[in-house]
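User: Teach me something about this protein's shape.
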Amino acid sequence: MHLKVLGLNHTTAPIEVREKFSVGKEAIRRGLENLDGYDGLSEAVILSTCNRSEIYAVTAAGCEASLYNFLSDLIGGAIDKNFLYEFDGEACAEHLFEVAAGLDSLVLGEGQILSQVKEAYTTAKAAAATSTILNTLFHRAIAAGKRVRTETKIAYNSVSVSSAAVDLAEKKLNGLVGKSALIFGAGKMAQLIAQHLLAHGLKKIFVANHHLSRAEDMAAKIGGQAVAWEDALIEAAHVDIIITSTGAPHYVIKPWQTQQLMTRRNGRGIFFIDIAVPRDVDPEVGKIKGVTLYNIDDLESVVEKNLEARRHEALLARKIIAEDVAAVMERFKYLNFQPLMANLSARAEQMRAREVRKISGKLPNLTDDERKILEQMTRRIVRKLLRMPMMKLNASAGTDSEIFYTQALKALFTDEVNSLAQN
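Assistant: First, the predicted structure itself:
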């Protein structure tokens, strides 16, 4: 049994390369169902996301080329090995465990990858492409991923500007349920923040943009309401949060406009988050009574602190992974031997039972107690004969002697048992 992973990710290949290696669900299913067509590949799981494409496989010795052929056929073209990594045995297991725990992700600790690992395994199992080795490996990896999220805080705290902005607003306003916001801008970042706000219970979002049609498009996507640019600060008299993300080359919210706004609000405070570069909100606005203003630098400092906290939790996560990898590798040591040992034991028992029947036929006067003694004695003899070979085989697991003892047992015992069993 040779456990391998072959793949690439965001650290080894740029997006234009990762796109070529991206494999759709239907192609994955077809590839796994045709796994038998590749010499030496007995099991496989394919994990393909926007940031990684990987094949976890069980291969026979000397069949490494089959894995590359399998990958080449999956993507429908030649492969450039310069972008690929390949890990064997324990290194393969450790890599999968780190992937499942979010330690190998573009965003440290992100949780989506665990569900993607589950889906990849489920697909492979449904295609009958997994057996004892990968079933064991993926069950343990998924459990380790869950354990990391339960026993550490690696997934806590926001590590993106958009999520940090929403978390900050939620903290400063004692929750967002029932609150409302006005967003200046209708780009990708503005939409992302809007989605985060709604996910945290925000009641209403107003969208303002120089081009009203773009504001209307975004409002339709998020279930909000578009407002004309020139009327936006009038509408702001009733909201709790103003977020700006316009990309304008100058300030779009000035102190005198904000002063008028605060007069209309009768002193009720308001929370500004300016994530634009260059800034949308004149920094003097933050000096107006009742105004709380945060800009992109403030948010990035929060993100960096949160990232540092996640890095600390990652150290704890790696200890968990080390424990679980050691446990699964210990179990793998003996999986190769189980069929041989079970076969040897079964054949020896068959021989023992046959010889007892023969001798019993020649001793018709045996009592039930004497028959039990005969059974016990012969079973002890078989166990003692097999004990040393079994111990040697177990002790060789994972060592350079493993192949020697496996072949020796097959040659010395299995063949002998076969010939004797025919007599």
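Now, about its shape. The first strand starts at residue 2 and ends at 9. Residues 152 and 313 are 6 Å apart (CA to CA). If you'd like, I can walk through any region in more detail.
User: That's plenty for now, thanks!
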